[in-house]
Amino acid sequence: MTDVDLSALEAVAGQCEALGVKVVRTVGDIKAVKTRVEIVENTIKAFGKIDVLVNSAGIFKASSVVQPNDANFDEVMDINVRCLYRMTSLCVPHLIKSKGNIVNVSSVAAKYPVQLDGMAYCVSKAAVDMLTKSTALELSSYGIRVNSVNPGYCHTGILRYIAAGDELEKVWSEVGQDHALGRTGEVEEISNMITYLASEEASFMTGSNVVVDGGYLIHKHTVSN
To answer: What is the pTM of this model?
Structure first.
């Protein structure tokens, strides 16, 4: 388990350990080569192998073509796409040995623009979907499965890039109405799908982009038309 935020990492790691799960922590910026190498080395040292890689790091920063911000665009692409690609490359030799699999965390933003200043995020998640399919094809001969999960809006820290305090609660409420089920998702509803895709129950699935969005896409499409 890794995070750039030590307090957040400790909070989640503590929840896992309370359930009797062994957790190996690596604190650092995923953009740094040193951090990515340490994640793999620490995992191998503790467990001797890697069975599953879950690429879940992601950020949102405003971007558009009318008011371009190259720094924001580049950072979103770097973390959401390039770091995913690089972590995958580092883990592949170990996954070949274990006949393991990969689950990438994408978004409904890969399928439908989510907001006017979300260009970089949407483009990055579309890239994650294609990277998932391309990697799945390349690694299929090694017996490695690669899938992605595409959540709708869920209660995670991602919206801290958009709002804060009382405004954040207002945004959550408004965003919930964009889903056919009338609410945003809970993290467990996404982690359940990640767990399924990583398990042998999904042994015949690879190259799939699985939408878990509370009906966000069908609702947005219906409203738009």
So the answer is: 0.93
pLDDT along the chain (225 residues), means of 10: 93 95 95 97 97 95 91 96 98 98 97 87 97 98 98 81 71 85 93 98 98 92 59
HEC-encoded secondary structure of the chain: CEECCHHHHHHHHHHHHHCCCCCCCEECCCCCHHHHHHHHHHHHHHHCCCCEEEECCCCCCCECCCCCCHHHHHHHHHHHHHHHHHHHHHHHHHHHHHCCEEEEECCHHHCCCCCCCEHHHHHHHHHHHHHHHHHHHHHHHHCCEEEEEEECCECCHHHHHCCCHHHHHHHHHHHHCCCCCCCCECHHHHHHHHHHHHCHHHCCCCCCEEEECCCHHHHHHHHHC
List active site positions.
121
Class of the CATH-defined domain 49-224: alpha beta
